[in-house]
Amino acid sequence: MAFLDVPNTARWAAERGPAAIITDLTNALERDFSRWQELDISPRYASHSREGVIELMPAADSETFGFKLVNGHPANPARGFQTVTACGMLVEVSNGYPSFLAEMTLLTALRTAATSALAARWLHSHDLISAGEAEGRGVHAMIGTGAQSEFQALAFRGELGIDRLRVFDVDPAATAKFAANAATLGFTDVTVADSPAEAVRGADVITTCTADKRLATVLHDADLATANPDTLYINAIGGDCPGKTELEPAIMERAHLVVVEHEEQSRVEGELQLQPATFPVTELHEIIRGLAPQPAPHTLTIFDSVGFGVEDFCTLRYARKSLTGTDFLQQIDLIANPDDPKNLFSLVAPR
Q: What does the alpha-carbon distance between residue 257 and residue 45 come to, in Å, rounded to a whole number?
C-alpha cells in the first residue's frame, strides 16, 4: 500500500506551496460538499480524558472508506508535544483492503484552512471583497496564533485577497513565531494587539482559533463594536470538542446566520453547546447545493466549524491522487497477503 510520511508531506508542501495546496483542497472540498447526499457520513467517535480527546473521524463513498485518527491535548505544548497530531487511511470498498496511509498533522492544517476558505467563498458578502479592495486589502483579525494560524492567513488571502492582519494571543512566543512566519509569507502589514478587542478593530473577518479545553470566552460581544459592521464575518474554528467554546453566546444570538458542517456533531462540540436545542443553524453543504440561501449582505454570519470526517476523507483522496506516481509516496507491506488467501498460516510455517 502507498504511504505518505511526514518528511515527504513537508517536502511536497514546500515544493508545491502551502497556498496552492489550500486552493486545490478548497476546490476539492467544494466538489465533495456538492455531492453530500452520495456520502456515508456520521459524527466522529471521541474518547475524552482530563488531558484531552482522541477521535476517529470517518466518511465514505461507494468506492472508498476513509478515516482520520486525531488528538487534541491543549496542555501538550508545555510538555514539548503538539496540541494536535493525526494520521489517516483510505480503504477500498470493493475488497476492504487499506490502500493509502498518511500522516495528517500537516494535512489537517491544510484541510482546516481549505475548509475556512470554502466557507468564506459561500458565506461572505461580496461587499466585503469590494470594500477590502477599495480600502486596500481588507483586515483579518486572528485570535490565536498557534499551529493553525499561518495556514488560516494564507487561506483568506488566497480566497478573498485579505492580507492585513491584526493578531492576538495570550502567548507572546506564539505571536512572535507567527509574525516571523507571516513576514516570510509576504504579509507586510501585521499588527500585534494587546487584547481581542484591539485585534478586531476595523476587522472584516475574525478567525478564532484557540486550544484551551474549557467553556472559554475569548471573544466578547462588546469586542465587536469597533469591527466593520457592513462586512464582518466570523470564522470560529477553535471549538471542536465537548466542553470547549470561544464566543460569548450573545454573539451567536445576534448573528443573522450560523453555519455548521454537520449539525448533529456541532450541537455537542461547537459554540452551539451554549445554545438551546432549537437554536437555528444551516449546514454548509445546504448552501453549496442550493438548498438554503446565501447570507444577505451587511449581516453577521458565523461559521461554527468543528471539523468533520468528510474534510479528511477528501484530503486523503486529494493527496493520493496528487502524489501517485511520484517519489513522495513509499510502498509498505501493512496487510498480510499469502499466495493462497485461505492459507494465512503459510506465512508463519516453519521453513
A: 28
Distance of alpha carbon 311 from alpha carbon 305, whole angstroms = 11
Q: Tell me the residue ranges of DSSP E strands in 171-278.
A: 189-192, 205-208, 215-219, 233-236, 245-247, 257-260
> Per-residue DSSP letters for 22-80?
HHHHHHHHHHHHHTGGGSEE-PPEEEE-SS-EEEEEEEE-SSEEEEEEEEE-TTGGGGT
| Portion of the chain with pLDDT greater than 70, in percent | 96
- CA–CA separation, 108 and 315 (whole Å): 8
In the chain the first and final C-alpha atoms are separated, in Å, by: 26
Query: Pick the catalytic residue: 32, 240, 304, 312?
Result: 240
Q: Tell me the pTM.
A: 0.94
240 as an active site residue: the answer is: yes
Local structure of residue 348 (DSSP, 8 states): T
**Cα 178 to Cα 11, 250, 319, 327, distances in angstroms:** 21, 30, 26, 31
Backbone angles phi, psi at 40, to 5 degrees: -95, 110
**Residue in the block written with cell 450573545:** 250
Q: How far is 170 from 168, CA to CA, in rounded Å?
A: 7
Kindly report the average pLDDT of the chain as a whole number.
Answer: 93
